[in-house]
Amino acid sequence: MNSTQRLTNYWVTCADGLETLLQQELENLGIQNIQRFAGRLVFKGTLENAYRICMWSRLASRVLLPIHTHELERTHDARDVAEELYEGAISFDWSLVFAPQSTFAVRLHVEREIKVNTQFATLRVKDGVVDSFMEAVGKRPSIDIKQPEITLYVLAGKTEHTYCLDLSGDSLHKRGYRRFMTDAPIKENLAAAILQKAELAEYQPDIILDPMCGSGTFIIESLMILTDRAPGLVRRFGFNGWHGHDRELWLSLKAEAAERHEKALERPLPKLYAYDADWEAVKATRQNIIAAGFEKLLDQIQIEERTLADWDNFHAEGKKAFIVTNPPYGERLGDKASNRSLYLGLSALLQKNFPNQRAAIIAAQVEQADVLAFLEPQTLRLMNGKLPIYVRFGTVKPATVTQPFLATWQPQQFEKIEGAEDFTNRLQKNMQNLKKWAVKENVYCLRLYDADLPDFNVAVDLYGDRLHVQEYAPPKSIDPEKAKKRFNLALAAIRAVTGLGRDAIFIKTRARQAGSNQYTKQSTASKRFIVQEGNARILVNLTDYLDTGLFLDHRQIRLRIAKEARGKHFLNLYSYTSTASLHAALGGAASTTSVDLSNTYLSWSKENFVLNGLTVDHADEQHMFFASDCFEWLKEGHEQYDLIFIDPPTFSNSKKFYGTFDVQRDHVSLIKRAMNRLTSDGTLYFSNNYRGFELDEEIEAMYDIEEITNETIGLDFKRNHKIHRAWKITHPAIK
Q1: Alpha helices in 234-325 (DSSP H)
Q2: What is the pTM of this model?
Q3: Which residues on neighbouring strands pair with residue 525, listed in sequence order?
Q4: What domains are defined for the chain?
Q5: For the residues 51-74, what does the mean pLDDT come to?
Q6: What span, in angstroms and rounded, lies between the C-alpha atoms of 537 and 422?
Q7: Per-residue pLDDT tens for 692-704?
């Protein structure tokens, strides 16, 4: 039996969670009788087996050849582990393994519960190897921790220390093509594992899409699988300086791998799409594809700067699609809520554009993965370095076609509610009158009733298929018990007329608010939902704050902004949850800038953007958010905007800035400052909810003014035409 056929024990290491997949891969390479441990597989095989793993394994981290075992006599707590490791190293003749002219490095792995300074212990292993050489041949090898010719892997255990030759040299996940990096990239072997688990090769898709491609790892690993490209074909290994290296055997395996790759290139490939919102990532992907040797296949790959919202019109069109991506989870989005919104938005786009197609999505927390709408989902937990990740696999559920609530609502049959007959009739009549309009205009959120009757002083708002009921606090002259009884009658009537149950109805009491109290948290229940308005999906909170995150009376002006924003730079002052900015962005605005004093509402704003596939997290942001007093912000900047929307509060005395704001008193100064930032042919929309408001004559004299109040009030607010007033303001034409 020659040396290449001799059976030897080998260790193959991998990231935690990959053991089962790696075993399947080794079995496909013809290796049997594999023992599985946490992070490591052990088998007895030939040198050819070991070389094939180095060449072909897409999942392994290292291939180790155990050389020497040092059994321990002392196992008590007072052991000097570093000196044990030295003794083990010097007791073996390392000149039998490699020459003193070779450089080497030591990688030390310590089993749990063993206490030792790993840096010092690693140094003692190196000392032992060097001293062994000096005793054997009188010469010593040099240390090279960056690019050693020989790497020794040492496992420090409780009863023995094992010294291995690392045949792989550097970790096998380093294929050699990643020349350009992006934030939080996934390791190449983990990407390959995900593609293997998703059965990419067996699925044979017509389209492969990575909508957040980063440095292009998934695209490149897909190409390597589909073109039968061995991951070890062009990289260096740790066995070249080993005395036992069989160069002819390795060159024959390399020639075989090159031939297989060339033959596979003759087969048709799917169309690949690599998108990212960050231009630097797009450049990195292109360069890494070239570095991987796939330059000739660039015509098969569409690499573009796109946000998720930009591929909203991308469809598989009857072809088999496979979507795989590593979203920018974690610190890059700031908090868990934004992360959840990202996954909700991604899921909605997948459902709309790729129903019944296969997908694999990475998440940092399993709760993020749980919002993905997959049929019969599977989850794989892996370690990307020291960070756990969760990969959700599945077939994308088709999107449920939803209609406005009033489209399916019909007048209900119910027993008469004594004392609430007039309210019942009025609410039912309002809903019947609004039904045709809501269905035609696709209005999902609207006001059904607004204190139409003096005895029932409530507002009833519909958000999707949920109701937000606000009780206007009764005056002190009204008996509280009587008011409570009447409100309970109203609630009974609301449930009867709408047909909605208690769990779909959210109740608040609305008193006149002073200062910033309107923004004070009312509850900690956090019942947040997604509703539709035009092309936008918006997060509303029906429990925590007096206002829900969506001012219904400004619906029409938001939709107007969406139509006018394409190609324009949009500024939103007192932006609240920035829904007007969101509509502008989805309408194709060149940029949006949102200014509000509240960090809470700006965080909410970013969630709305992320939910709709718009990016808010890279340096040259197209969509910007500023936590600032609007007066000060306007004063400090010089940027010009084509379209501006101002919807200030009636009064504010926030603790965050000195003084108070009164819309009647201060609107002249506010509008003048904003008009200084408006382009000569731009448009400013000004609106407010102060019922006694009058636009100052100074403003009317300085600018072209058109009151557009009637155009900005939807049918659901026509009964209360004083809900707000709005103006279109432009610079006078130069004569």
Answers
A1: 247-264, 279-291
A2: 0.87
A3: none
A4: 8-166 (3.30.2130.30), 188-227+269-396 (3.40.50.150), 402-511 (3.30.750.80), 526-735 (3.40.50.150)
A5: 94
A6: 36
A7: 999 999 999 999 9
